[in-house]
Specification:
It contains 7 helices and 4 strands; from the N terminus they run E-H-H-E-H-H-E-H-H-E-H. By secondary structure, the chain is of the alpha/beta class.
């Protein structure tokens, strides 16, 4: 079974119905409902999604939506070790490396992170080194 990590952007696309992206996210959740794939996200992504969308949806409605979403998504915790490892890195790549360290225990996840497609050769090289060290 494929395991897919959903970043904050993907969750916001779904809940805020951001077209055309929401249609693809809905398809992912439909596959998860049919147990064809397994979805993951980070605790940070849940918190950030709540923060971003509470301005647009009522607090109670948003809580219900996020609560229901948790039936389909396994939440990966961001703990102190992940934060310290991310803070040890340079600012330029900090955001990407935080996500990398969150995902480190889950090497088989397919990651839906838009910025991963844009990262430089140096970051890709650094990630390859970190993968070998872990």
């Amino acid at each position: 079974m494929k395991k897919i990590f959903l970043d904050t952007n993907i969750l916001v696309d779904l809940i805020a119905d951001r077209k055309p992206f929401s249609k693809y996210t809905i398809q992912l959740f439909q596959k998860a409902e049919l147990n064809e794939i397994q979805l993951f996200t980070s605790s940070h992504s849940i918190a950030t999604t709540h923060y971003l969308l509470k301005k647009y949806l009522g607090e109670n409605e948003l809580r219900v939506v996020i609560y229901d979403l948790l039936d389909y998504v396994t939440v990966i915790s961001v703990d102190i070790d992940i934060i310290k490892r991310g803070l040890d890195q340079t600012t330029e790549i900090l955001k990407i490396l935080f996500k990398y360290f969150v995902l480190l225990p889950f090497p088989t996840l397919i990651v839906l992170l838009p910025e991963i497609r844009k990262i430089s050769k140096q970051v890709k090289y650094l990630l390859s080194i970190l993968t070998k060290l872990s």
